[in-house]
Write a structure and sequence with these properties.
Number of strands: 12
Mean pLDDT: 93
Order of helices and strands: HEHEEHEHEEHHHHHEEHEEHEEHH
Radius of gyration: 20 Å
Length: 339
């Protein structure tokens, strides 16, 4: 179990009437699963609670009951809602920058601002930080908070939390997976009557034709640097738009770079319509890509992180390739010769 003292947040939750939940840009299964489960729990307490994200919920997670409660930020609809809330709770993210379009209203809100997260960065912006870097997923923290408040995990909550666990532990293969992880998941599976193949199919075997085409284009763009220790791929906005894949979640494509023999770290650069660049980073072992991401106002885990860089894709590629030499063993000797 985590070392978070849940009593201060539990008190604020009991007294609050209007609560808004959010997560990071390009929300993944952990952030979305937590939002859905926590939204359902707060509803059982009679709270007026809304989920507001910078982007629409990824298609692969829309099979979850409760995903229809995830609202995509619209200034006219949500600005006043966020600014007038009693509590704004961000889950699976401590970076203000990664709130993206929601950021301005969160900075201006009168609400008590709370962060529930398991990443390494702890941000003093938040009035209350409920952070445990040893937790395998933010879903573990939401599960523990509900338990602390004597709440009952329902089937809908269990399904959402199961998605949180399986996506952020890499189906229980990452190093923060513990016996406690499996005990919690066993309870979740019992309550939710979870059938694992259904979830795997929905999340990983429901690829659209556009996404399949983007996968091929990303792989064909792969380049190797630093003696084959670093692999990177790119997708231009034209490639994405031509395939009508604007809303596709391409972040996991970078995992394929790590499957190449000798590669210790990988990156996928995705051009955005406004000229900015999304960067998905992955690594093996002791290579800390979250430290690299944090230096550019991004965030994530030691071996999985992301950045939204306010520069064109070619500039983002040039900068990140140069910085990788600080994180790869013997990179200075190998040089950054593109393969």
């Amino acid at each position: 179990m985590s070392n978070v003292d849940w009593a201060p947040l539990a008190g604020k939750l009991r007294s609050a009437e209007k609560i808004v939940l959010g997560t990071h840009i390009n929300a993944d299964g952990d952030g979305l699963g937590c939002e859905i489960a926590f939204h359902r729990f707060l509803k059982t307490l009679g709270k007026n609670v809304r989920i507001v994200n910078s982007e629409a919920c990824s298609e692969r997670y829309r099979f979850l009951e409760g995903s229809d409660a995830i609202e995509t930020y619209d200034r006219e609809v949500h600005s006043g809602l966020i600014r007038d809330a009693d509590l704004f709770i961000v889950i699976d993210n401590s970076s203000v920058e990664r709130l993206a379009r929601v950021r301005e209203d969160v900075e201006a809100t009168r609400a008590v601002k709370v962060c529930i997260d398991h990443h390494s960065a702890r941000n003093p912006f938040w009035d209350l930080n409920c952070v445990d870097t040893d937790a395998c997923a933010s879903g573990q923290l939401i599960y523990e908070l509900i338990h602390h408040m004597k709440g009952e995990i329902t089937r809908e909550m269990a399904e959402a939390l199961y998605v949180s666990f399986i996506t952020d532990t890499g189906h229980f293969r990452f190093s923060k997976t513990t016996a406690d992880t499996h005990r919690i998941v066993a309870h979740i599976m019992d309550v939710g009557e979870i059938f694992p193949p259904r979830f795997y199919t929905q999340i990983y075997e429901n690829t659209s034709p556009g996404m399949a085409a983007l996968t091929g284009q990303a792989l064909s763009s792969m380049k190797l640097e630093y003696g084959g220790r670093f692999a990177w791929m790119q997708l231009t906005w034209k490639q994405i738009a031509d395939r009508r894949a604007e809303e596709e979640d391409t972040g996991d494509l970078v995992n394929m770079a790590l499957a190449v023999e000798g590669v210790l770290a990988g990156a996928l650069f995705r051009e955005m319509p406004d000229g900015k660049t999304k960067v998905s980073l992955r690594s093996k072992g002791d290579i800390d890509v979250s430290a690299l991401a944090t230096s550019y106002n991004g965030g994530g885990h030691k071996n999985a992180a992301g950045i939204l860089m306010p520069v064109p894709i070619n500039e983002a590629i040039r900068v990140l390739i140069g910085r990788m030499q600080d994180y790869l063993p013997d990179a200075g000797r190998a040089g950054a010769a593109t393969g």
